[in-house]
Automatic annotation (TrEMBL):
UniProt protein name: HesA/MoeB/ThiF family protein
InterPro entries from the UniProt entry: ThiF/MoeB/HesA, ThiF_NAD_FAD-bd, Ubiquitin-activating_enz
Domain (THIF-type NAD/FAD binding fold) ranges: 4-162
GO MF assignments: tRNA threonylcarbamoyladenosine dehydratase; ubiquitin-like modifier activating enzyme activity
A biological process from GO: cyclic threonylcarbamoyladenosine biosynthetic process
PANTHER family given in the database record: TRNA THREONYLCARBAMOYLADENOSINE DEHYDRATASE
Amino acid sequence: MDRYKRNVKTLTEEENNMLKSCKVCVIGCGGLGGYVIEMLGRLGVGHIACVDGDVFDESNLNRQILSDENSIGMSKAEKAVKRMKIVNSNIEATAIKEMFTQKNAIEILEGNHVVVDALDSIDSRLLLQNICEELKIPLVHGAIAGWYGQVSTVLPGDRTLDFIYSRKNNSKGATKQLLKIC
């Protein structure tokens, strides 16, 4: 398809076709998650689960791609799915209008090939890492705050978020721990 022909500059045709069968779960559809969902849909990832139990409010208008004045009060997950229908009707996007918790974690994550962390809570991120490890699903961690951003791939068993969000150490201590491992 012409839609994906520019992808071939970075992906082979075979890789591009493989994206159609990929299942990606994005946990958090706000500031970071909205942009991730947008790009995954444009790239042609075939199945995107959009997970967020929150709704848009006025404070989201200046920084969240999925928010607009008409979406105030609307589910972030539902808005992500509506946006994907406009951006790429060839993909399947599913709204899961729930907060990610210990109680629903396995049900939400099972069957996905990759999970994207776009959460805003350290405790939720650590829970996500644990469940992804249990289910043997790779996790892509992302976080933003103002002009600062971080990204990391967490393969099952890596426990990378334990170093980033160490409760015993400040960020310098966690960095020193990580450098010792390297």
